[in-house]
Amino acid sequence: MLQQQFDSSVLPKAWKHTIIIPIPKPNKDKTKVTSYRPIALTSVFCKIFERILAHRITHFLTSQKKLNPNQHGFLPFRDNHTAIYKIYSAISEARKSKKFFVAVSLDIKSAYDSVHVDDLILKCLQLGISGKVTKWMHHFLQDRSFQIKWRNFLSNPKTSFKGLPQGSVLSPILYVIFMNDFFETLDNNVECSIFADDIFVYCPHHSLTYIQTKIQNTLELIYKWCCYWKLTICPEKSAIIELSNKQVTSFPRITYAGIPLPWSESIKYLGIQFSKYNQNGHILRSLRNKALKKINGLKMLG
């Protein structure tokens, strides 16, 4: 049955329908829409097929080395810990070399909802994903419907024409594909780590003026990339920080889309608080605690 669905690319309507249940966030004002986290319920049979397809796509992309190694989300042998360790290593190396280290945390607005289906299919084809797979995905992503369930009531069905479906097993790897050419926006000597929609751009150097130029050039290229692919980065939710052990008397002006980014004393990235003065010990303790939790979980299985 699943093979027939794949060959025909004709999906049952139930496979393209989502029930959304709003769950209140803790300690938030329940009169505001933003105080609720949407939980998406989709077809169980569709989830089974998606999981098979996601595994095949991921295996193809990783075995053929199609993805940038600085993508850490939803991929084998990569996770938030590999992303954090990479950044931690870069900061430690900059401190040993007595370099400045400037990092920018960027926030993409409604990341999954902003992906246009035709743009995603184009990127899939460019990475060598076969036409039959992309044809099925195109049908899967187009003209999806959803309803909101509140208590025992269902809203009228609505149709969505863009975005990756929340709760879909395929959505994470498809978003990784969509973001893969983001790294082409980086100027020379500028590094970047991405986990899902969390972006961390950084540059170490002996000169703050050099870093200012490189980071500013990169942010301008990122702005052009976002405009082309119809994404929006929120400057008010983005921040910039200096993480070396050197004294900084004057912070350079760095902007995104003409809006100055605020300099921060600390930045939270993937659950880790990066700050100038407690950097090494805090990160190591956080990584150690998370590792111990996983080890204890394995002991329970033994």
Automatic annotation (TrEMBL):
InterPro entries: DNA/RNA_pol_sf (IPR043502), Rev_trsase/Diguanyl_cyclase (IPR043128), RT_dom (IPR000477)
Keywords, ordered alphabetically: Nucleotidyltransferase, RNA-directed DNA polymerase, Transferase
Record-annotated membrane-spanning stretches: none
GO molecular function, one term: RNA-directed DNA polymerase activity
CDD domains associated with the record: RT_nLTR_like
Residue ranges of domain Reverse transcriptase in the record: 4-261
Keyword check for Nucleotidyltransferase: yes
Name listed for the protein in its UniProt record: RNA-directed DNA polymerase from mobile element jockey
Protein's organism: Araneus ventricosus
Taxonomy of the source species: Eukaryota, Metazoa, Ecdysozoa, Arthropoda, Chelicerata
Gene name linked to the record: pol_2947
